[in-house]
């Protein structure tokens, strides 16, 4: 008689290799975008309490404990921070690894005694270990107020160690930079690796102005090292001018929420090394004028610029764009055009000014969030303009050097014809079908083909061109595309 061995219910889990668990727990330690700041760390802590083998994994994997978050929370007497013992435990678990550190608060906290600031002082003592540091100025302002009100002389600030590992500093913008920013000064004396500076804060009262740059210069922040700037908080043109003028080595800049640009008073900021500029977010103004992110372009000179991303809620301004090109004398090679209030003629006019363009992205990210956005569709006028040929110059009138085009399939105004595919074929053939030249097409949102078979005409024609040799990428690879591919002769 054959003897049968009954496996335990958890036999698979019991034999998972240590390294596999370690990698799984690392994924757990990374919080998702919708999670709270410390969700990943708390999940690791919970995991360590499941069983002895899992605790052994977490105890010997310091990389699981490198996301250090100190967040003010409401509750108790005046609300407070996590206790110092818990923070000390997390820091010890992380070993000597570089940290991602954040101190945050929904509003400025109130410290009423030493027990309220113990964890914060420990955080400040260990900031030199941060690779990425995110700081809310409200917390530092509250700490300064505590020191002043209680006549406390904090040795933490006097003995702050330099951030030799620091690569990115992110500041949550507030009204009073003259208080919070000097508290951090010891961190960049020196900070030889810091290259990214970010200011965040999505609300109108969380803005930065020229005062932020002034106070950072006063405490010798190494602006000359910064190559990447990220602004996700409101900034006016005066603040932007002061900031850009202080960044001689800037190469990449993302600007959101630029407001109250005055063409007559706006000073020209020259950024000699800037090669990538992104305008994003929503335009707004404190006056009665119609807001436009485009106006800030007229205040920037970037002779080295090659990549421009225009993806924002607002208007197209041909005057500002023309002024920008005249000031910059740059050769833009890559463009993402996604302006909600720009129509098809605006798009064509823009491309006519960019004869050196090689990569064009017309995918709609911001435009999809706004009803009746004019820039949403790719219509007949645009297709005709892209197909127009200049016999005297032996090149296309629009974007003669274009090598790559990216669009969303559901932004084609009429997919019952093959007008778009015909234009693509013309461009591809005149480029030598990839032999003497090259041309690439990327189609996104291919899952939105529509229910009417006639709406598949463009896709079928493009797939036939792909079979003939066109460099075509379709995302995602839907079941309908697979079906069509199988039926191709």
From TrEMBL:
It comes from Gymnopilus dilepis. This is Uncharacterized protein. PANTHER family: F-BOX AND LEUCINE-RICH REPEAT PROTEIN 6, F-BOX DOMAIN CONTAINING PROTEIN, EXPRESSED.
């Amino acid at each position: 008689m054959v003897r049968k061995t009954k496996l335990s219910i958890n036999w698979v889990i019991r034999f998972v290799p240590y390294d596999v668990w370690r990698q799984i727990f690392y994924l757990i330690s990374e919080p998702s975008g919708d999670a709270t700041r410390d969700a990943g760390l708390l999940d690791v802590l919970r995991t360590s309490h499941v069983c002895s083998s899992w605790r052994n994994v977490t105890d010997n994997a310091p990389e699981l404990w490198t996301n250090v978050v100190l967040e003010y929370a409401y509750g108790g007497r005046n609300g407070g921070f996590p206790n110092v013992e818990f923070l000390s435990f997390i820091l010890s678990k992380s070993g000597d690894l570089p940290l991602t550190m954040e101190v945050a608060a929904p509003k400025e906290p109130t410290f009423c005694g030493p027990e309220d600031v113990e964890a914060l002082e420990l955080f400040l003592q260990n900031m030199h270990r941060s690779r990425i540091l995110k700081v809310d100025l409200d917390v530092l302002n509250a700490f300064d107020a505590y020191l002043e009100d209680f006549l406390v002389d904090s040795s933490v600030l006097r003995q702050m160690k330099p951030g030799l590992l620091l690569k990115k500093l992110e500041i949550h913008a507030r009204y009073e930079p003259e208080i919070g920013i000097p508290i951090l000064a010891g961190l960049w004396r020196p900070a030889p690796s810091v290259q990214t500076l970010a200011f965040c804060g999505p609300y109108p009262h969380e803005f930065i102005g020229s005062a932020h740059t002034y106070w950072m210069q006063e405490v010798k922040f190494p602006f000359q090292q910064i190559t990447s700037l990220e602004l996700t908080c409101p900034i006016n043109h005066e603040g932007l001018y002061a900031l850009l003028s202080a960044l001689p080595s800037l190469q990449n800049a993302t600007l959101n929420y630029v407001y109250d640009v005055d063409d007559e008073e706006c000073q020209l900021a020259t950024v000699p090394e800037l090669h990538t500029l992104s305008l994003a977010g929503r335009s707004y103004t404190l006056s009665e004028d119609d807001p436009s992110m485009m106006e800030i372009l007229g205040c920037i000179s970037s002779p080295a610029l090659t990549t421009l991303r225009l993806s924002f809620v607002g208007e197209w301004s041909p005057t500002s764009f023309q002024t920008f090109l005249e000031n910059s004398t740059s050769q833009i090679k890559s463009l993402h055009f996604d302006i909600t209030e720009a129509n098809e003629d605006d798009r064509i006019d823009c491309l006519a000014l960019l004869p050196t363009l090689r990569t064009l992205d017309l995918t709609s990210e911001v435009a999809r969030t706004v009803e009746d956005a004019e820039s949403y569709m790719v219509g007949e006028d645009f297709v005709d303009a892209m197909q127009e040929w200049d016999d005297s110059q032996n090149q296309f009138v629009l974007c003669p050097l274009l090598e790559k085009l990216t669009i969303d399939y559901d932004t084609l105004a009429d997919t019952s014809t093959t007008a778009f595919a015909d234009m693509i074929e013309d461009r591809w053939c005149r480029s030598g079908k990839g032999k003497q030249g090259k041309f690439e097409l990327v189609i996104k949102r291919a899952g939105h083909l529509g229910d009417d078979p006639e709406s598949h005409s463009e896709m079928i024609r493009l797939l036939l061109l792909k079979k003939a040799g066109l460099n075509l990428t379709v995302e995602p690879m839907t079941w309908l595309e697979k079906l069509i591919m199988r039926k191709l002769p």
